[in-house]
Design goal:
- The protein has 18 helices and 14 strands.
- The strands form three sheets. The protein has a six-stranded mixed β-sheet, with helices on both faces. A six-stranded mixed β-sheet has the order 8-9-10-11-12-13, with helices on one face. It has a two-stranded antiparallel ribbon with strand order 1-2.
- It has three domains: 234 residues, no CATH class; 216 residues, Carbon-nitrogen hydrolase (Nitrilase/N-carbamoyl-D-aminoacid amidohydrolase, 4-Layer Sandwich), CATH 3.60.110; 29 residues, no CATH class.
- It has 535 residues and is α/β, with parallel strands linked by helices.
Length: 535
Amino acid sequence: MPIRAESSACVCVFPTTRMPDTRLVGLAAWAAGLRPRNRLILCALIGALAGLGQAPWGLWPLTVAGLAMLFAIFTAAPTWRRAGFLGWAAGTGYFMLSLNWIVEPFLVDVARHGWMAPFALFGLSAGLALFWAAGFALARAAGGGALAWVAALLLSEAARTYLFTGFPWAQTGHALIDTPWLHWASWGGSLMLTAITLAAAAALWRVVCGPRPAALVALALIAALHGAGAALTPAAQPTPDAPLVRLIQPNAAQHLKWHPDHTRTFFERQIAFTSAPPDGQGAPTPAARPDLIVWPETAIPVLLERAGPAFDAISAAADGAPVVLGLQRTDGLRYFNSLVMLDASGQVAALYDKHHLVPFGEYIPFGDFFARFGITAFSAQAGNGYSSGPGAQVIGLGDLGLALPLICYEGVFPQDVRAAPARPDMLLLITNDAWFGTRSGPYQHLAQARLRSVEQGLPMIRVANTGVSAMIDAAGRVTASIPLGQAGWRDAPLPPPLPPTIYARTGDSPAIGLALVLLALSFLRNRSPARSDSD
């Protein structure tokens, strides 16, 4: 006869021939017995542990282990309210560790803004943690089973991607970007990686509680997905006649970038890199000149309307190659964060205005709405902050094909990439990651760029002011790069695109739909009188 062992943290059924690790089960029971305040502190600490799977640490086993412990504590929550508080505490700890780079913009002028840094970090983390709180509460209301927990948290991460302009940074699934699981994003996007991470955590805890066949099968399946991952998106090697792209990285520190004594220095540095001879690394022959040259976001300190002399100098340095660069432009009182392509004669051949702006960083939400009532201090149309461009578009790069331009923050949104009116041949991202500091932010931004390439099966040209500038192939591999914090340039052949992926055709709808179905089934099962307690 099997023996039933119950604790306030988990309910396990196991045969007498095998007992659970009583120390681990006892740990969960001990956590459930803590005072509420101490339990919340513990969840916050475990959440921070789970955040160590994000770049640059990349300790994905700690993400799985941390989530497994959080699932164990969650199963002991007697009500959906208690579960919600646990989720909020865990999410706050997770985001405070993962998003610690958010303090960096406040340290550019530390004397004026440094005092705001801890409040900004806690405020953002506590706000994003509300999505985790909703997920934990919803899962508890649906019965508290493993499937309900995975489905509810997956939906909360989907909501974080789309609601309130979205902020999908540091999804739990991003911990898998440096593993073969990354390639499954070509099937289900970042949400599939999140589902794998959450399922692995729940199954791991169930196995700890005893030999649960379903949990063992789940772990075996997840391990199989790891083994098969690399075969999904084989690396596409550039052909001998692949276009050559020059990446330009001036390394302009944010506190000096707009300083009158330094702007000319950074401009001349980029001119020198543009006119430099081939670096001999990416060029197919020592004499090969680049077919395209790319400068970063806001690369020149003048507005588009006054950039004629700068464009002439850039065109002369490029020696006939087209140049893509970022700058600002105006239209009446409105300001735009823009990207232009200069043709061989230095004329603007393509223009793109950033459309997915950073709330509070590039504009104040509802500023134009309040302007109707005479409050114009926050209105973009009155010149306060950037105005949004018309939306995603593709631009022609001559013989290189079509590119989908992305500016900085837009690279973290899978929906912005899928919004392209036509399938491009490449993704083209320019950014100024100097705002993110030198520790975690730039590396997390780069990781998400790799994820976008795998989701779409497209190479990406990524050029950052301070780094990391990189050429990324359609399998998410970095084929050439310039390290963070270095000024330099690099010639890199453009990898070819792969056929459209499943995710490119379907987006997040299948993952969201499946999560909704699983959650609905959990609710129905929880309402059934015959519901099993051993889930």
